[in-house]
Amino acid sequence: MADVTIENIVASAQLADKLDIRQIADAIPESKYNPDNFPGLILHFEEPKSAILLFSSGKFICTGTKRMEDVSITLQKLVSKMHVIGINVEKQPEMKVQNIVISADLGKEFQLTVIAKGLLQQNVEYEPEQFPGLIYRMDDAGTVILLFSSGKLVCTGAKAIEEAAAAVNLMKEKLASLGVL
Predict the structure, then answer these.
(1) d(Cα 180, Cα 115) in Å, to the nearest integer?
(2) Measuring CA to CA, which residue among 1, 7, 10 is closest to residue 159?
(3) What is the DSSP string of 13-52?
(4) Which of 57, 74, 127, 162 is most deeply packed, by most CB within 10 A?
(5) What is the reported pTM?
(6) In this predicted model, what pLDDT tens digit does every residue of 36-55 receive, in sequence order?
């Protein structure tokens, strides 16, 4: 498995059928709610470092965590906070991972123009005037790799850490087949 660092996990769940976001915002002073700018309530946690986006539909999104355990801890903190302010919500909502963002360092600098040509422009975007990295959409892995000339990469779109690591390994294989790794 590739040596990767988890940068962010985004997960979601259904907390209730419907929520009164204004009531929750009034009851939780540290929350942020400005419906003119964003339709959801934002709640930050310091430990584990994370953020919750809570919507009137009863759905929420957890972001900013770097471990699956921290997603669960953040969820339990939210559920507890809701019960403290008198809002009845699911005690154990089923979490669904939406996206995992990982990074890796391949330990070598690259000429991205050579790689873009070698990949035959299939699923590749490389416009250095617009963005300094090569964007490679890995249809076979369902992920997107951002490869930088420094040898660092970011992988997004995976729903499991193993998927992200597999995408990085696949990218390494492609780079090796081009003779650049």
Answers:
(1) 8
(2) 10
(3) EE--S---HHHHHHH-TT-B--TTT-SSEEEEETTTTEEE
(4) 74
(5) 0.89
(6) 999 999 999 999 999 999 99
